[in-house]
Amino acid sequence: VGLVRLDLTKLQRVLMGALIVLDVHGIAVLENLEEAKCRSVSDFDWSKQLRYYWVMEDTVMSDGSRISDDCVIRQTIASSKYSHEYLGNTPRLVVTPLTDKCYMTLTGAMHLNYGGAPAGPAGTGKTETTKDLGKALAVPVIVFNCSDGLDYKIMGRFFSGLAQAGSWACFDEFNRIQVEVLSVIAQQMLTVTQAIRAKKDVFEFVGQEIPLNRRFGVYITMNPGYAGRAELPDNLKALFRPVAMMVPDYGLIAEIILYSEGFNGAKMLARKMVNLYRLSSEQLSKQDHYDFGMR
């Protein structure tokens, strides 16, 4: 933490912030393992962590591909190849127990060739968690904000590009799209998913033969219960694994962010900050320009 207060360049400061956030999570994981008296690599408390291995011998991944002498990421039963894509020097998300559970569900969905569907109120970190899992696996994540003006042709082009590039897409506010369009999207998504399950290298999509990169992943985030939002059709629901996101531990997040910015008394400051925001949201009148969430 002392290093952050030195005269650093902007890039070095971002890098140090990301390292501190990851180190604090590492310390928390070790404390939890000690507390749970974890003594074996097959213990669930160990296998539920997102872990990096360098494998020398021939190993089968979740998507059916075989690799050797490469970096592999494992969590519970899922395993995937580290993608080695440079995504830039970016800050990392504070990992809370909620984030861990979300990662576990999303990597489990990946293992079974499903998409992920985090749902919950605004400001709970649905999009950010998906983006950060992408950073952990070194996969580029394209975030797209959906509106009711989207048609199946745009989405078809989107899926075509993702399937060829092997990128992930995170469709924000997915249930804003009209129900008629959602049914066609489900069919397009099913075509790609079936090609991945059949371990194809080339498949037919919307009348064209295109190459397939099996790293393809689609994640949708939803705010349930808002005006103008559609219910997802059943054939689309069947392709996504739902994750319920709740309001995270603001105190923990504030504390780790303050540590990463070079504050020594972060624990006490975080408590004061959370109380300040909580009191502000409770006591002040409701205004459109007030937002006392984590944003």
Describe this structure in words.
It is a single chain. The protein is 41% helix and 17% strand. The chain is built from 9 helices and 12 strands. It has helices at residues 10-35, 44-47, 97-111, 126-136, 152-165, 179-197, 234-237, 250-260, 266-283; strands at 51-55, 59-60, 66-67, 70-75, 78-81, 115-119, 141-145, 168-172, 202-205, 208-211, 217-220, 240-244. Strands 1-4-5 form a 3-stranded antiparallel beta sheet. A 3-stranded parallel beta sheet has the order 7-8-11, covered by helices on one side. Strands 2-3 form a two-stranded antiparallel sheet. A hairpin with a 2-residue loop joins strand 9 and strand 10 (208-211). It is globular and about 60 Å long.
User: Structural class, please?
Assistant: alpha/beta
Mean pLDDT: 90
What is the distance, rounded to the nearest whole angstrom, between the alpha carbons of the first and last residues?
Answer: 24 Å
Rough outline: globular
The count of helical stretches stands at 9
The strand count comes to 12
Strand/helix succession: HHEEEEEHEHEHEHEEEHEHH
Radius of gyration: 21 Å
Largest sheet report:
3 strands, antiparallel
Strand content: 15-25%
Strand order of the largest sheet: 1-4-5
**Unreliable residue runs:** none
Explain the layout of strands and helices.
Blueprint: H1 10-35, H2 44-47, E1 51-55, E2 59-60, E3 66-67, E4 70-75, E5 78-81, H3 97-111, E6 115-119, H4 126-136, E7 141-145, H5 152-165, E8 168-172, H6 179-197, E9 202-205, E10 208-211, E11 217-220, H7 234-237, E12 240-244, H8 250-260, H9 266-283
Parallel strand pairs: 6-12, 7-8, 8-11
Antiparallel strand pairs: 1-4, 2-3, 4-5, 9-10
Helix pairs in contact: 1-8, 5-6, 8-9
